[in-house]
Structures are given as structure tokens and as C-alpha cells.
Design brief:
38% of the residues lie in helices and 20% in strands. It is α/β, with parallel strands linked by helices. The protein folds into 2 domains: 130 residues, Periplasmic binding protein-like II (D-Maltodextrin-Binding Protein, domain 2, 3-Layer(aba) Sandwich), CATH 3.40.190.10; 93 residues, D-Maltodextrin-Binding Protein, domain 2 (3-Layer(aba) Sandwich).
Length: 284
């Protein structure tokens, strides 16, 4: 009898231990890595374009390097010009260095769209077609379009006289668009040197370009027999960036830098240095 009772007690004890040590249901919690049911973990926002520039410590700027006095190489082959120094001043305001990438004008915008550089600073005029694809900074220069012809050309005295004539420019430039608008046939060139070569050899009737570029060219080549036949209204020169939220803070920072440079007189100083007069303000 005692043996039976002992066996019974041993069985009950074993059953109790199994029950106590058996599997338990998982417990929900609002602490640690898992969020509570019905909520999402906060996402870290990707850095925008300005933040990436500041993290890299440099602003990559594209320009031609062949369009004096905006962007060109001096006698020592150093890249200089109004747009070069404006870019350097903007980068300083942003607290970063500047890196220049030179290329033909017709490829500058494609390179920016491909992410090879941050902005284009190359005397870019604001026009409707560009404004559909890019956001522009506030203007930092005002530039008149000149119709340039050979000294003995008396046929072109207005933009309307370009109808049926042959001109030359980089194809995506504002100047090419204006020439085509008035009925000219435009020959595509790579740079300013080719443009004047075609004009001086009589292979084109005219070229459209910056008034200040013409004066700069004549200072370096005073014996060339060319002249300004027509001057248009001043256009607004600004810095394009790609549209979208990614570039919103970059555009705001560029505008802030330009406003400070204007207030400090830096834009006027650089304009007088390279153009002989202040084109940083609209004097119309």
C-alpha cells in the first residue's frame, strides 16, 4: 500500500513539473526594435543635393572654358573669367571647394542631367524652353544679344533681316534659337573661335552672341573687320538646376549666396573686372 501511494505521488510530481516547464505564448511588446501593431518605424530621409555637396566638400561646376570673358584660359592656361569667379564665390558661401569641368556647350546640360556635375555656370540665359526643364536662380547678369557681321555688310540692320541668311552658333544656345526664330539657317559650331572663323572667311552672313563677348574679342583682335549690326534687349543670365525637391535647398542656397555677393558689391567688382562695366544689374 505504501509503495502504491509513493508511486502515485511521484506521478503527480512529474506531471506538475511538465506543466510548469511547458511552452508559453510569445508576449507582445512596444519596446526594442519592433514597432507596436499598426505603426511603422520612422524612415531616415535621404540627403538632398545640397547635403550631398556639403558632405563631399565640393561644388562641381560645368562650363565651356572657351568663351571669353565669361569662362576662358589666360596666357598661363589658367581657367579664369566672370563665371569662374562667380562660381568660386558661391562655393565659398556654401562652405565648400569648387571643381570645374569643361566641355562643349551643347553637352553641358546633358551632363548635369546625368549627374556628372552639380550646376552649369556659363552665361546661361533664361528662356521659356529651358524654364520647362530647369529651375533658375535669380539673375546675376544682364546681357544684350548682338548680331555681328562683316564690316562691309549693310544688308542686316534688324533681326528681321536674318531671314534667309546663314549664321553660326552652338546649336543649343539661346543665340541659335533667336537666329532660327527670325528665319536664319544656323550652322552648328563647338566654340566661339569657330564662329568668328566662319564669319571672317565669309562662310556665314552673321553670328549672334553676347555684346560683351564681341567687345572682349575686339580688344584682343582690334584689326578684325567686323561690327555689331543690331543690339537686342537685355536677357537675364542665371544658374540652372534640375527641377524637383532634391534641388530646392540648393537653389535657395545659391540665391542666398548671389544676394549676399550683390549686397557686398562683389558681383559689381567682378563685372567691372571682366566686362569694363557693371552688367550684374538690370539698368534698363
Amino acid at each position: 500500500m505504501k509503495k502504491t501511494i509513493a508511486l502515485l505521488l511521484a506521478g503527480l510530481l512529474t506531471l506538475g513539473l511538465l506543466t510548469a516547464c511547458g511552452p508559453t505564448e510569445p508576449q507582445s511588446t512596444t519596446s526594442g526594435a519592433e514597432p507596436p501593431q499598426g505603426s511603422q518605424a520612422p524612415e531616415t530621409a535621404a540627403p538632398d543635393h545640397l547635403s550631398r555637396i556639403q558632405a563631399a566638400g565640393k561644388l562641381v561646376v560645368a562650363m565651356e572654358g572657351t568663351w571669353s570673358p565669361w569662362t576662358y584660359h589666360d596666357e598661363s592656361d589658367t581657367l579664369v573669367g566672370y563665371d569662374v569667379e562667380v562660381s568660386q564665390a558661391i562655393a565659398e558661401k556654401l562652405g565648400v571647394d569648387v571643381e570645374f569641368v569643361e566641355g562643349e556647350f551643347d553637352g553641358l546640360f546633358a551632363g548635369m542631367e546625368a549627374g556628372r556635375y552639380d550646376i552649369v555656370v556659363n552665361g546661361v540665359d533664361i528662356d521659356e524652353e529651358r524654364a520647362e526643364k530647369y529651375d533658375f536662380s535669380t539673375p546675376y547678369a544682364y546681357n544684350q544679344t548682338a548680331v555681328i557681321v562683316a564690316m562691309d555688310n549693310d544688308e542686316i540692320t534688324s533681326f528681321e533681316d536674318l531671314a534667309g541668311k546663314h549664321t553660326a552658333n552652338t546649336i543649343t544656345s539661346t543665340y541659335a534659337k533667336v537666329a532660327e526664330k527670325y528665319g536664319a539657317t544656323v550652322t552648328g559650331v563647338d566654340d566661339l573661335a569657330q564662329t568668328f572663323e566662319l564669319l571672317l572667311t565669309g562662310r556665314i552672313d552673321a553670328t549672334l552672341n553676347s555684346e560683351m563677348t564681341f567687345y572682349d574679342y575686339m580688344n584682343a583682335h582690334p584689326d578684325e573687320q567686323i561690327k555689331i549690326a543690331v543690339l537686342g534687349e537685355a536677357t537675364q543670365t542665371a544658374i540652372p538646376v534640375l527641377k524637383g525637391d532634391d534641388n530646392a535647398t540648393l537653389l535657395a542656397a545659391i540665391n542666398k549666396a548671389l544676394a549676399e555677393l550683390a549686397a557686398e558689391g562683389k558681383l559689381t567688382e567682378l563685372s567691372n573686372k571682366y566686362f569694363g562695366r557693371d552688367i550684374s544689374q538690370d539698368l534698363a
